[in-house]
Design a protein that fits this description.
The structure is a single chain. With about 200 residues, this protein is mainly β. It is built from three helices and 14 strands. The strands form four sheets. Strands 4, 5, 6, 7, 10 and 11 form a six-stranded antiparallel β-sheet that branches. Strands 9-8-12-13 form a four-stranded antiparallel β-sheet, with no helix packed on it. The longest helix is centred in the N-terminal third of the chain and has 7 residues, at about 15-20.
Length: about 200
């Protein structure tokens, strides 16, 4: 995914529109909640998927039985990438047509697919964080790939039925014309990638 957003020296509105959920729309909720990975002491689940005209937002729910070691600044530090790169949470998505995206800076995957992290909330045992995926996935299987050494979760792949996502966009309510947001965010540092993993194949 290119990070260039200037067009003729000005901010490119089409680039910016791909970067986050449009604030001028009321999305459609789709019930695709599912557990993506777990151990005896930690779990990550997909929740709250909402469909917009240009993509989907969703939450990932992180739960741990006991507080993490201080090296990772707690669960919030791990989820929001404030701690060390070792053991960092890795997330990837593969669309039905084979296109890919990930949260690994420098290995984002297909240039026309965007996967961006948003805000969240939580405490030492429970954290939820929102994510944005552009474009709307084509109908068919939607694969979520994740791994997090700090939580003891090995790389795992979960497929959800994406056939209900694109049709739901027809019911999105547009409140007023879209205008570009007036903020930018630097990318996170590159994490340590497990050798031979799904994420290592991304370019």
């Amino acid at each position: 995914m290119s990070t260039t957003y200037l067009l003729g020296g000005e901010r490119d509105p089409e680039f910016l529109r791909r970067m986050s959920a449009p604030e001028n729309e009321i999305p459609v909720a789709v019930p695709l909640n599912t557990l993506l990975g777990r151990t005896a002491d930690a779990a990550v689940a997909l929740t709250g998927l909402q469909v917009y005209s240009s993509g989907v937002s969703f939450d990932l729910a992180f739960r741990v039985r006991s507080p993490l070691e201080p090296a990772h600044l707690g669960l919030s530090g791990l989820v929001f990438e404030h701690g060390p790169s070792s053991g960092r949470f890795l997330l990837g998505i593969e669309l039905a047509d084979g296109r890919r995206a990930s949260n690994v800076h420098g290995r984002e995957g297909s240039p026309d697919v965007v996967l961006n992290a948003g805000g969240g909330r939580g405490h030492e045992l429970s954290v939820d964080r929102s994510w944005w995926l552009h474009p709307l996935p084509p109908e068919g299987p939607l694969r979520f790939v994740l791994g997090c050494a700090a939580l003891g979760i090995a790389e795992t792949s979960t497929v959800v039925d994406g056939t209900v996502i694109r049709p739901a966009a027809a019911d999105v309510v547009t409140l007023w014309p879209w205008s570009p947001p007036d903020h930018d965010r630097p990318p996170p540092p590159v994490p340590d990638l497990p050798p031979g993993s799904w994420f290592s194949d991304l370019s």
